[in-house]
Amino acid sequence: MPTKSPSAVATRRKFLKGAAVAAAATVAAPSVVRAQGPINMRWQSTWPSKDIFHEYALDYAKKVNDMTGGDLKIEVLPAGAVVPAFQLLDAVSKGTLDGGHGVLVYHYGKQTALALWGSGPGYGMDANMLLAWHKYGGGKELLAKLYSSIGANVVSFPYAPLYTQPLGWFKKPVTKPEDFQGLKYRTVGISIDVFTAMGAAVNALPGGEIVSAIDRGLLDAAEFNNATSDRALGFADVSKICMLQSYHQNAEQLEITFNKTKFDALPDKLKAIISNAVEAASQDMQWKAIDRNSQDYITLQTVDKVKFYKTPDSVLKKQLEAYDDVVRKYAASNPLFKEIVESQLAFAKRATQWEQDYVVNRRMAFEHYWGPNAKRPI
Fold it and tell me: In terms of domains, do 259 and 353 share one?
């Protein structure tokens, strides 16, 4: 057996030593991860704890917590736990909160263009189509540009397309546009300008403050969002008249925000889970809304004795005219506002034409199965 040279022995010893160090590092790595523990994030929503919207925030957090296997743990607090609802963006941007759950129109006071994500008729689009514009039509890039312009240190994920919101709760049915003259009315976003133009005295309040304001006479009427939220917040205790259908928030979505500094520091794997969980929660929210809103719509009528009326076409037409005037005003003075509107219009032109041509009107099928001359198969 040939004798090994001193250099060969040294090389072999060096190799074995390196392998031993690598093996030790491999064994030690899991304990290092365990020692670091999960990343914890404290969030707040803009909703009272009893609102289904806060439930949606909890649903999203649970999806992320489950999908990361506990590596990221999001705790969601209700509105007011750390800051008032309308101060959520500032709190997330400054890092007081790690993230939040709300709506973009609540940031209207900082930059009017933020309300274009949901406050208005959507140019014939519903909220799901507006989200399609956001993801594939340039909206995502425009929103990042918009937040940057106001120095907001956030990463935003619009999601959860909402169904058309009622005109709201009134003391008596609305029959004509003139009924808004002098009416003390609650709304948010660009709708503030729309209903002000229609003669209302508008007061923007967070959801949890509306019913008490009506009860104390500070408001004559108000809109919020959907049958489930409205019932949970107690609207039926202060009004028995609800007007259905409106263009003021026909295409609104919810919004998930992260503090950008903290989000950027996350591992790529967690960022991917967060992004994909947004889309999973978005679809789940739609399914839950159909189930819960339809049941609470029945309960409001049968148990709470609320009477629902369709908003007259004359009021809907006036909304569209007032909205267009508001858009022209802001587009003339705000270049970003104009850029976003132009982008939405271009997407809406083809998307709504496609929808009108392709999608069958379901009214005939509804009348066939549930109308006065129903012909159900079994």
Answer: no
Residue 32 phi, psi (nearest 5):
-65, -45
Which band of pLDDT confidence, cut at 50, 70 and 90, is reported for residue 37? confident
Distance CA 184, CA 201 (A): 5
Q: Which structure tokens are listed for 23? A: 């093996």
Which pair of structure tokens corresponds to residue 183? 């009416």
Share above pLDDT 90 across residues of the chain, in percent, rounded to a whole number: 89
User: What is the secondary structure of 213-261 as a DSSP string?
Assistant: HHHTTS-SEE--S-HHHHHHHTGGGT-SEEEE--STBSS-EEEEEEEHH
pLDDT band of residue 36 (cuts 50, 70, 90) is low
Domain membership of residue 174 as a residue range: 168-250+302-358
Q: Tell me: do 49 and 87 sit in the same domain.
A: yes
Determine the angle formed by the axes of helices 268-302 and 52-67, rounding to 10 degrees: 150
Residue 126 — φ and ψ, nearest 5°?
A: -95, 180
Q: Specify whether 124 is located in the same domain as 240.
A: no
Measured in degrees and rounded to the nearest 5, phi and psi for residue 83 equal: -140, 160
The helix (H) or strand (E) run that includes residue 100 is: strand 99-102
**Whether residue 246 sits in one domain with residue 140:** no
What are the strands of the beta sheet with 307-310, ordered from one edge? 201-203, 184-186, 221-222, 168-170, 241-244, 307-310
- Please count the CA atoms within 13 angstroms of the CA of 280 that sit on its side-chain side: 14
Distance CA 102, CA 88 (A): 8
The 10s digit of each residue's pLDDT in 334-347 is 999 999 999 999 99
Tell me the CATH number at 316: 3.40.190.170
Do 104 and 183 belong together in one domain? no
Element (H, E) at 134: helix 127-136
